[in-house]
Batch of 2 targets.
Target 1
Amino acid sequence: GAGVSQTPSNKVTEKGKYVELRCDPISGHTALYWYRQSLGQGPEFLIYFQGTGAADDSGLPNDRFFAVRPEGSVSTLKIQRTERGDSAVYLCASSLDPSHEQFFGPGTRLTVL
Amino acid sequence: KQEVTQIPAALSVPEGENLVLNCSFTDSAIYNLQWFRQDPGKGLTSLLLIQSSQREQTSGRLNASLDKSSGRSTLYIAASQPGDSATYLCAVTSDMRFGAGTRLTVKP
């Protein structure tokens, strides 16, 4: 079956703009995770959904970041008033539930000019 | 807060050598630990998941062990090949915490 997909693969935007990043998890996976990764670092946790609700959003760096998963499948990470420091690869993962393996998408490379 | 550390940051070995990558974590009350491989510019590929009740998992030339009491996990790669060259990441996935990875180079 299909793996986790993310769109777009690359996004270049200007400082101050709004961006949306999309994640399509593996069908049937109730848990969905967003991470971001900077060069040479491991992924940094942002937010975790169990079904439609955000079970843990403690990793969101500030209120410019918001994520939704309205139907318990596709999720959108939204970043308002982007800053150059938001430039990173944003990774999405899904799992059957938190006790199972996480499977990652290819990521969206965000560049804020 | 869970902290995950991987040592060494980089490792270079000749082809055919057996090697061990190390991962340590600060909070032993983990639910599971997962090892991943990441090729340059790519996403993460899951290698092995170890549940907290397990001590090791094997897949082909890979063997991962878990010692919760000492806060350590190791990934053993047997008979390394140039195609094994990548960054290897460990994660306490139940806490959503990753190490920074070990960049492995296997020289032909």
Target 2
Amino acid sequence: TQLLEQSPQFLSIQEGENLTVYCNSSSVFSSLQWYRQEPGEGPVLLVTVVTGGEVKKLKRLTFQFGDARKDSSLHITAAQPGDTGLYLCAGAAGGTSYGKLTFGQGTILTVHP
Amino acid sequence: NAGVMQNPRHLVRRRGQEARLRCSPMKGHSHVYWYRQLPEEGLKFMVYLQKENIIDESGMPKERFSAEFPKEGPSILRIQQVVRGDSAAYFCASSQGATGELFFGEGSRLTVL
């Protein structure tokens, strides 16, 4: 059974601060995805990383996939109140389906004005 | 282009009753996934279906739960004789192909009294 450990579980910071969320596993994933979920809604895909060592940027968000494809991080620069939400990492084992994902428990981020 | 549609959004059932959750994938998507999100837990994969076929049901409880995706109409997740532990948010996701991006619906929140 593949597991993804996501940390921290809760993060409360002031506007303008930087933060990093971590996602770790002992298993290798063919790809790793980051989602954001608002209360009462479904997860929305932010990014997919596929290659070991890959770095992707989405405005103030930087995503990195570990060289061994077992871990990933999400770094937010100069956080804003609009970044508040639940962030989820999810790994795909690959094979016949990339839609069978193993999710981390999530990080609830609160950015105070 | 409508997204993944789930209904009902909220469902209340008494112990022992049946719950039926419906999911209409995005137009052109023939791959459907069901996930369950229990309180204080992350999303857990339940089942992966294509039209008229169950591809992977390794995450489905062995009893009381069933899923189908008929040739015509939405995918249905059926829970018979519900118990309080079935209370959760059930999310459906669809993709165009086996390796395509997942799009999640807004979820169906089941409460068992």
